[in-house]
Amino acid sequence: MPAGGVKRPPEGQGPILGRMNSAFETVYGDVQPLDWLCLAPHPDDAEIGAGGTLIRLAQAGKKVGILELSRGEKGTQGTPEVRVQECARAAQIMGLSWRGQLGLVDGEIMDTAKAAHRLAATLRAVRPTVLVVPHFKDRHPDHFGAYHLSKRAVHLAQLQKAYVGGEPHRVSRVLLYQGNADITPTLLVDVEGVQEVWAAAILAHESQFAGAAISETVTPEIVERRRARQGYWGTLGRVRYAEAFEAETALLVDPEAL
Ligand SMILES: [Zn+2]
Prior knowledge:
By secondary structure, the chain is α/β, with parallel strands linked by helices. The chain has helices at residues 45-59, 80-94, 113-126, 141-157, 195-203, 206-209, 222-237; strands at 25-29, 36-40, 64-70, 98-104, 130-134, 173-177, 187-190, 242-247. Helices cover 35% and strands 17% of the residues.
């Protein structure tokens, strides 16, 4: 079975996945067990919301990946063909180990059984320890849809009897990253040292940020705007710039490190 292949259910017990024989497409790097995987409803979401943290981890030798749930084909600017090239370029800049696309329909990302099985199959293939997902408060329907979809997929990926191919996999921790809504972070990550790389990774998505501003996120000012937010979180964390996350479960810490 190819990487990402989907095991067919026994006769009479499906098929949820129909004729599909591959859950995802690799656009950069190699399929391999990852330390961190960030889910992005559209190309560039991961860079904008969690890019500094992902870059820091990659620079520290961690295996980091991004999975786009859609190709962003309904975006006003760019085409899927152009955007996938931009994704590969950004992946190289960030030092990612793997980047893939799930190929769900842009504008229709939601918690369905079919989509959850495909995402679960992908989780089993790249086996992340930490999964970073959009926050459920995001105002974009694809973003909160991605959050709810991820919940079902994380559950399915660990079930012995889920017909999604590959060996069961349990994600150790889920973190929520910030989109277009205020959040109450439970952890902050210092990203001052990776500002230049982070900006370059975002601007690699040239089709989105080189033209006229058309929304709060599709604007040449995106780096400036998000850096201002990082400055705010940085103030709370007593560093210059920080990215904010919410942990789904309580973090166990060494009290001596506090
Ligand atoms: Zn998005």
